What does this fold into?
Amino acid sequence: MLLGVAVAAAFISWNRRSRLPAPAPAVAAAEYRAGPGVIGATLRLTGVTSARNYVALRAPEWSGGGGTGEAEAGRGIPGRIVLRSVVAPGADVREGQVVAEFDGPPAESSLDAARLRVSEQEAVLKTERADLDSARRAREEQLDSAQAALEKARADMRKVPVLSAVDAEETRLAFDEAQARYEQLMRERPLLKASQAAQMRHGELDLAVAKLDLKRAEESSSAAVVRSPIRGVAVVGQTWKDGQAGQIRAGDSVQQGEVFLRIIDPSSIVVAAAVNQVDAPRLKAGAAARIRFDAYPDLTLAATVEVVGAIAEPVSTAGVGPVRQVPVVLRLNGGDSRLIPDLSVSADVELEAAARCDTVVPIGALQRDADGHSFVYVDSEGKWVRRNVKIGRKNYLQAEVSGGLRAGEMVALELPGQEAP
It folds into this structure.
């Protein structure tokens, strides 16, 4: 009885399996035939453009803190003024050229404030000059006193042979003290002079700035005129309008004192990038590079590694944790009218000159195990077989296989039997 039940169960199970669909065949892996090629060892960095030489122009600041113009958000917004006109973004600007005009309060109020600042700064400079002169005279008197004390101590030293041991020792100590005091004051003399000169220069510069502000206020009437102090390219700032960021243009209101325009020297634009501290020793100053711009796919410029930082800084990376990176600066060897700061770029830095290799495979064909060994999957009589390989020079696209693989052999570009990611 039990034997019959077991036989029947086995027959039913076999019958069900025979009617199931056959297993799906393994997904064929994308293939590549290894062969000779030319590889230049490069390292890819990402960064942004930055201008070394530029000026940031700010909206005027009126005494009283209120604008008088009308903007989209309302009339007479405290602390904001309306931009009457502004130079076009990317325009070439001459030194002294008018680049913007603002609606402003009556010129007289700004003139009064500018004149008051000049008067105050002149008074401050006069007081500071008197204080420094007084301090200088007091120090000279100290020096004269210290010199007199040293001469007296030197005269007392002549009496040492006839003095008692205690008096002789006290006389020597007094001489050493007087000599040290005099030498200290003499050493401090040029430092004090330099310090006072720096303080005076600081006050003179403050006065010069106040006079320059007064001159600008005198040149302005009902509108505040802003001129470019250097020659360069105009980079107009951004503002928020209707909940969205947009480029500042005529008719917009901006905060008083806000940077609304930058004039940059295009020849001073560099690329500020970073490299993982593991790869930093491979980079050398003077190495050639090619710069590609995300905003302009058709633009590629030659560059040179100018500076490789010495100190690695931690950078947070989502899901990975802090990574230590070394700052790198690349100097552009050419220019373009579209170059402005804050453009995202990629830089391929040449680590080794390009050379011909006997066996080359794409980077995607390389795998790495837990022990750090590199391997590839090789087509062997219709089957994918794992094979350890030795890697020579490589870049971000290709790698030289210097051992473990022959030219003409077929390798998989993804794990065999798996869909490509």
The CA atoms of residues 303 and 332 lie 4 Å apart. Residues 165-219 form the longest helix (55 residues). Residues 109-219 form one domain. The helical segments are 2-19, 107-157, 165-219.
